[in-house]
Amino acid sequence: VSLTCTGAPTGSTCVLTPKIVTPGANATATSSGVVTTTALMIPPRLPNGPRPFLWIWVCTVLSLALALYLARIMAQRPARKLIWAFAFLLFVALAGCSHALRGGGKTLAGSYPLTVKGTSGALNHSATFTLTVQ
Asked: Which pLDDT tens digit goes with each residue over 43-100?
């Protein structure tokens, strides 16, 4: 009998051991399953001193100030649009780098149905379990 496990949420895996079982004389076989999830880790707060995100704000403000200064100096030149485009792209790039607390690829809290299916030739049997992630 070949066993499969489906329905695992994003950031988790369902592994059955062994994946293939042979029932004995009493028509029973045993396999065990392990579900592994990926936790959302939030970095601990620094005790005292400057925070890392402070440097992002300082760089952003200084970059925008420099871009505005250059735009003012070059206001009489055709490169004005280029300066504004550079300032906008720099601002977007810095804003895009501030994703430290997002949980992409992590298993979110909730209940998920897991289905274990056994197949032997044309015969199929399945059982559904609920995985609760806290």
From this structure: 666 566 555 667 777 777 888 887 777 767 666 666 667 776 777 777 777 666 555 4
Is the dihedral angle over the CA atoms 94, 99, 100, 104 positive or is it negative?
Answer: negative
Only one residue has tokens 């895996």, namely 13
Cα separation of 51 and 60, whole Å?
A: 15
Distance CA 66, CA 37 (A): 46
Q: What is the pTM of this model?
A: 0.51
State the DSSP H helix or E strand holding residue 9, giving kind and residue range, or none if neither. Answer: none
> Which of 33, 31, 53 minimizes the C-alpha distance to 43?
53
Instruction: Report the pLDDT averaged over residues 103-114.
Output: 76
